[in-house]
């Protein structure tokens, strides 16, 4: 192993101020809080199976899904640590129907899915935290409507992937930076200062269990991915973990496409705009990829409510262009929505 120079997260944020927007000091505080919270989540997840932290907490969240005990633990970690910064006025979390006020004088809003894909923990598969930050446009008691913003207004977006190693990936609109958790020192060290996704790729990630409920364009794209070349070999490979952060991260690094389209059961898609798709879309674009909801750039949607869902297509440029060429404008949902946001 080489003795590579170690750059810790707080050093990187503190020194590379040009990569951290208009208020690098605030970004440092917020990212440090994310770092602390995710360190605690990492530690706790690692004890899964040894302590009584697995399984359902016995209630449902606003999406009607079983809340896992670890969802609640992760949520508390982010709330507590962000509260301590003084910078966050309110949090919109997947775990809470209403926003949570942290600090009325805070200048920023934080949206998060504190533990995405949490049912995967029971079977030892990667999960993630997804987060997004907006600057407030008003002062005073935070209101839920303040989160009704365009995705392109995000000033900080990122995720933590609790995988074979724990990785924190974020952007403030000046490239994508990744840090890996060092379990010996309990710190996050820089592993890639500027991630770029390959323009081409061959991984397609979609839950094919939904195949018969998908619009024809998406079905046709899936069939296209399954075509063989002239030598009879496959042209694409399918990967779907059911853990958005893990699926996206792999595709970003290797080249691929992730699709969670509208389905018959979920005509507006399954994933949430504010705290799942928006942050991933900002990372995707900053890495040189594309993210849309089917007809237009995802970051051009203005949220209408904090738990809003959206269809989601994201990935490498060439694969995305190909996939979008299969989508007709026939989808009623897309036409209605594109009228709304234009
Ligand atoms: O919270 C959403 C999520 O858990 C994502 O991580 C994942 O991509 C998706 O749901 C999987 O959904 P499904 O089980 O419908 O394929
Ligand atoms: Mn989720």
> Given the structure, what is the number of helices?
8
- What class do helices, strands and sheet pairing give? alpha+beta
Q: How helix-rich are the residues, as a percent range?
A: 25-40%
Average pLDDT number? 92
State the CATH superfamily name of the largest domain: Fructose-1,6-Bisphosphatase, subunit A, domain 1
Model description:
This protein has 342 residues and is of the alpha+beta class. It folds into two domains: 9-192, Fructose-1,6-Bisphosphatase, subunit A, domain 1 (Fructose-1,6-Bisphosphatase, Chain A, domain 1), CATH 3.30.540; 203-341, D-Maltodextrin-Binding Protein, domain 2. 29% of the residues lie in helices and 22% in strands. An eight-stranded mixed sheet has the order 4-3-5-6-7-8-9-10, with helices on both faces. The chain has a five-stranded mixed sheet with strand order 12-11-13-15-14, sandwiched between helices. Helix 1 (9-15) runs antiparallel to helix 2 (24-45), helix 2 (24-45) packs antiparallel against helix 3 and helix 4 (216-225) crosses helix 7. It starts with 8 loop residues before the first helix and ends with a helix. Bound molecules: 6-O-phosphono-beta-D-fructofuranose and manganese (II) ion. Residues 116-117, 207, 242-244, 260, 270-271 line the site of 6-O-phosphono-beta-D-fructofuranose. Residues 94, 113, 116, 276 line the site of manganese (II) ion.
Short structural summary:
With 342 residues, the chain is an alpha+beta fold.
